[in-house]
Amino acid sequence: MPTIVEYNQIFSLSNSFFNYVFKVNSAGLLEHLYYGIPIENGHEASTHYRSIQRALTSDFEGVEHLSLNDLPQEFPCHGRSDYRSPAFHGRNKDGNSIFTFSYQSFEIKSGKPNLESMPCARGGDAQTLIIYLEDKLMQIELRLYYTIYEDHAVLIRSCSLHNLSENEIAISAIASTTLNFAPGNFELMHLHGTWAREFNEERFPIPTGKFTIESTRGASSANHYPFMAIMEEGTNEDYGQVYSTSLIYSGNFAMHVQKNEFDSTRLIAGINSFNFNWILKPNQSFEAPEAVHVFSDRGLNKMSQHWHRFIREKISPPNFYNIPRPSYLNTWEACYFNVSSSKVLGLAQTAASLGLEMIVLDDGWFNGRNDDASSLGDWVADAQKFPEGIAWLAAKVKQLGLKFGIWFEPEMISPESDLYKAHPEWAIQVPGRKASLGRNQLTLDLSQEVVVNYIFESLDRILSCGDIDYVKWDMNRAMTEIGSTALPKDQQGEVAHRYILGLYKLLDRITQKYPNILFENCASGGNRCDLGMLSYMPQSWTSDMCDPIGRLDIIHGASYILPNEVLTAYVGPSPNHQNGRVSSLKTRFLAGMLCAGRGFSLNEEDLLKYKDEIHTYSQLIKETEKDLLGGKFYRLIKSRNEVCFQYISSNASKIFVVYFQILSAPNLPFKKVRLKGLNPDHSYELKDNKQTYRGDVLMGSGIALPYATNYGEGKELVMEIADFVSHLFVFHRSD
Ligand code: GLA
Questions:
Q1: pLDDT band at 98 (very low <50, low <70, confident <90, very high)
Q2: Which residues pair with residue 732 across a beta bridge?
Q3: Dist. CA 634 → ligand 1 center (Å)
Q4: In this structure, are residues 102 and 29 in contact, taking their beta carbons and an 8 Å threshold?
Q5: Count of CB atoms within 10 A of residue 115's CB?
Q6: 525 lines ligand 1 (CB under 6 A)
Q7: Taking burial as the number of CB atoms within 10 A of a residue's CB, which of 50, 96, 205, 229 is the most buried?
Q8: Binding site membership of 379 for ligand 1 (Cβ less than 6 Å)
Q9: Pairing mode, if any, of strands 642-648 and 654-661?
Q10: How far apart are CA 552 and CA 200, in angstroms?
Q11: Residue 332 beta carbon below 6 angstroms from any ligand 1 atom
């Protein structure tokens, strides 16, 4: 089991991956001591004797030489000699913002308590330390939660605030976690993007000052994925200590690192305090979402593998654990809004003949929805396009031996809809201002229970036919003019967070009622791929970018945290509809080869034109569907012109390597790539040439990468001379 020990008010949490240590200091504050590789006696973690007089600092409550200015604290407040951004900020009954949480007691629980209002990591082989702190003057209690697992390099943190007084407290900032780093030079990596260009990696030395990633858009957003990795200088895929953080939260978040004048770095992460104001009434509590920290002592690859296994085992819905994802045909880029029963049935027949397993009816199927200007909120089948209704269509599709999937955008309302005519007050809005439209639509106010109930019932009416196997849950706009018609003036600062709480309630109800439906998370692609959404949905549409070259960057960035088994990809048309690039079907398929959810979105003409190739790929999907669950992913090459990923199946019997050469060039060097994570003594047969290689050869000497030429020998290891070429190596363990 992981151990949590208390030794003279020093708390040490440890497992075989790391130690995390802090103490109660002489002023009753929690002082951080150590986070890093396991050390036998955590309480012996060395630390400076901090009690010196520095100019221009103040002593906390007159304790001699104790300034909070540079003190590493577990949950820092503001205004008492710490001038950095705090983990907590608010207004108390006296109108000032001074709070101080002092240590009262602790408790160690086996397992892990759940949050009441939000999704959270599952427990199991875990232990949780709860530290009780109190601001005696204001009569509020703060509880800090620390969970450590036996078998994961993961520390979970969160907190809750309990108002024991008779006064209201206005909370303007409450973080989930704070990490402190001893003075040193660290680098930061984060993932940023936008629509169709999600998950771009950015990396730089942490400067003095403050760097923040955040969302104010109502969703976690593609602009900044809630993820930061702080690592020692020179860290690469295989070397270096890495401390990474994400949040189990889908709304406005913020994460910042702040490096002060003494080179101390501090990370704070949680709900974004900007535009947040929560009135905590007497006897009420507030819980912060969970922050997840993953530590790696051997670089970014190990960090990613820790994340992948943790998400699979403790975040993803367990009912889809080890359940292969069906190959599919999606109607979106095949028909856009121009869908109908006959078209869908025609495509379904073709899909079945090509060996695909599911048809997904994307946007355009409901009342009057012929473009993106109307109908969101009116979840009934369009009488002209689907006169027999969805239940009939789903049953017909099932008769063809296919699964049936359908698209919803449940959180939205079009001003052009029956719902809006009946309930304009259900949209997010502020009085007297004309609302900004995003994709011609408004956001429903999920902070209102009546709205959540309406959405649940609308979806339930369609899903209850019993023939629906998959739902694509989309969300296509960012919030503006955030306000609710149902809350008083002083609670308008609560709307964005209350929306997320309403969304979680809705997702909880619908996924519990339909445990066998495969829910796919989508938000104009990867605009909300966070661990909160992934707690309800086994998979996520990573991006609307289906051009393979554009997709490679996205898969590369996403792979830092997200396992391939939560990612989906389809082969879209060429020229690509997002960037106009022309590419082969092979490269389009191989770009998504390692995602567990794989499919196609091609029209009838293309399906027939490429029928043999598609048939081959649908067979390959079937052959590999189990392999892509629970294995290990490696980023082998990522350069301007080449990308190479490797994947080892969970039983280590198969290895897939996908290689892409982006632009063609003449007379290139002969290159090799060294594989990773194999057993050196095992033998592996390469399907291409039936040659057998020992693991040590593949990892030491490597494999020859295919060479782009029109004249080469050994055809199978040669790629054509062209832009955007690719190759798949499949190895089977042969002993
Ligand atoms: C979003 C999704 C697409 C598609 C459309 C339908 O853009 O990301 O995959 O479903 O909506 O309107």
A1: very high
A2: 654, 685
A3: 29
A4: yes
A5: 17
A6: yes
A7: 229
A8: no
A9: antiparallel
A10: 11
A11: yes
pLDDT of the residue at 245: 99
Q: Cβ contacts of residue 404 below 8 Å, gap of 6+?
A: 358, 359, 361, 393, 394, 397, 398, 467, 468, 469, 470
User: What distance in angstroms lies between residue 470's CA and the mean position of ligand 1's atoms?
Assistant: 15
Task: Choose one of 544, 551, 554, 578 to mutate for the ligand 1 pocket test, by most ligand atoms within 8 angstroms of C-beta.
Answer: 544
| Closest CA to ligand 1's atom 12 | 363
Catalytic residue, from 362, 363, 544, 606: name it: 544
User: Which residue has the least CA distance to atom 2 on ligand 1?
Assistant: 524
The counts of H helices and E strands in the chain are 13, 40
Q: State whether the beta carbon of 222 lies less than 6 angstroms from ligand 1.
A: no
Please report where in the chains the tokens 């739902």 appear, as a residue. 471
Pair 159, 166: CB distance under 8 Å: no
Residue with tokens 């109660």: 24
Cis peptide before 324 (omega within 30 of 0): no
**Separation CA 293–CA 245 (nearest Å):** 4
Ligand 1 centroid–CA 184 distance in Å is 45
Band of pLDDT at residue 719, cut at 50, 70 and 90: confident
The reported pLDDT for the residue numbered 709 is 83
Q: How far is the CA of 473 from the centre of ligand 1 (A)?
A: 10
Report which of 642, 554, 595, 636 is spatially closest to residue 191, judged by C-alpha positions.
554
**Closest C-alpha among 289, 181, 244, 213 to residue 531:** 289
> For residues 133 and 25, what is the distance between their CA atoms, to the nearest angstrom?
13
- DSSP per-residue codes, 370-427: SSTTS-TT--SB-TTT-TTHHHHHHHHHHHTT-EEEEEE-TTEE-SSSHHHHH-GGGB
Task: Give the residue whose CA is nearest to atom 7 of ligand 1.
Answer: 524
Q: Which of 284, 275, 300, 298 is nearest to 218 (CA)?
A: 275
Selected catalytic residue, list 445, 474, 547, 606: 474
What average pLDDT does range 147-175 have in this prediction?
98
Residue owning the nearest CA to atom 6 of ligand 1 = 363
Residue in 330, 407, 473 to alter for ligand 1 test, most ligand atoms within 8 A of Cβ: 407
Q: Measured from the CB, is residue 357 less than 6 Å from ligand 1?
A: no
The two structure tokens encoding residue 151: 């078998």
Cα separation, 717 vs 102, in Å, equals 66
Residue whose Cα lies nearest atom 1 of ligand 1: it is 524
Ligand 1 center–CA 476 separation, angstroms? 8
Looking from the CA of residue 407, the nearest atom of ligand 1 is 10
- 529 three-state secondary structure: coil
| pLDDT surpasses 70 at 712 | no
Concerning whether 688 is annotated as a catalytic residue, the answer is no
Q: Amino acid letter at 692?
A: T
Question: In this structure, are strands 291-296 and 567-571 parallel, antiparallel, or unpaired?
Answer: unpaired
Instruction: Determine whether the shortest distance from the Cβ of 474 to ligand 1 is under 6 A.
Output: yes
- Give which of 32, 29, 37 is closest to 11, Cα–Cα: 32
Q: Which residues contact 711 (CB under 8 A, 6 or more apart)?
A: none
Q: Ligand 1, atom 8: nearest CA belongs to which residue?
A: 524
Q: Which residue has the higher pLDDT, 276 or 720?
A: 276
The encoded tokens of residue 535 equal 């707690």
Distance 474 CA to ligand 1 centre (A): 7
Q: What pTM does this model have?
A: 0.98
HSE-up of 166 (CA within 13 Å, CB side)?
Answer: 0
Give catalytic status of residue 723 as yes or no.
Answer: no
Q: Closest Cα to residue 620, out of 664, 573, 571?
A: 571
Angle at 412 (CA atoms; ends 411, 414), nearest 5 degrees: 165
- pLDDT tens-digit profile of 6-60? 999 999 999 999 999 999 999 999 999 999 999 988 888 888 878 888 999 999 9
| 524 Cα to the center of ligand 1, angstroms | 5
Cα–Cα nearest to 727, from 652, 673, 653, 666:
673
How remote is the C-alpha of 640 from its chain's centroid? 26
